[in-house]
Amino acid sequence: MKVISLFCGAGGMDLGFLKAGHTIIWANDNDKDSVETYKKNICKKFNLPDNHVVLKDIEKVDTKEIPDGDIVIGGFPCQGFSVANPYRHVKDSRNKLYLELLRVIKEKKPKYFVAENVPGILSIGKGEVIKMIMRDFKEAGYKAQYKVLNAANFGVPQKRMRVIILGTREDVEPRIYHPKPTHSQNPKTTVDGTKLKRWLTVRYAISDLPDPGEGVDIPNHHGTKHKVKVNGFIGNRATKWDEPSPTIVGRGGGTGGPVIIPHPNLHRRMTVRETARLQSFPDDFVFEGSISSQYRQIGNAVPWPLAYNIARVIPKK
User: Fold this and answer.
1) Residue 10: which CATH number?
2) Total number of domains constituting the chain
């Protein structure tokens, strides 16, 4: 299927769709560092031209500039929705960016769409925001449903809950539904008679990485000197070796820099590369921009194994 990718960021969701056999025909983001990272990794590794990804505010993109596609995907900016943002409000202007996703879907009329956001979207406005979004998709001509998926249940070494909205155009068959888990906290769990794999852990993801320092030649294996302070708040909770990591986030409240979780040794915080591994990015996926920007790009990304399993429920033609 031909995929239009909105709010593509560094390309986590796109990587999953590409690995599942779909084709990204057009991508867009308004963050320069993210687009440079996308070009260096997604475009280069999959032989896509650099102009395949467009650096531009989506509100200023005429849909005539976007080629026709079969699928529209987008993890639309979620800071206005996130429970990590104590200032979230129904009228937060960032909440309206989903309307840009809706605009492209309405005008390009793809067979399917996939929208991703944080669980906080379900409770904001006492549930009125998600009801409004679902009504909008129905009025646009799509059968849509949402479900909260945990990335750890799809082979990501991280407890990361995300709302995934799947839509199928009313005249299209088959209708798509959410993927079934491939992993479980309980190794005895089965789905359709198949035993699920055990959750991946922090130890599995990063235990082979040396501490950062001189002589260590691993891309993006550098970090922050911000001290570790374990107090139970987001970004300051102890990370345990033998569990999936806590959620990797892009930044804290409505403002400020990225939130970087502690290393399990509790003597320092995770490096950019360690954080990338917890988001399932391979080591040859190199992030551009400042260290703060690199952390933010990773925190805002969709882990590719989650995107891959979603992409697999969509027909190839």
Assistant:
1) 3.40.50.150
2) 1
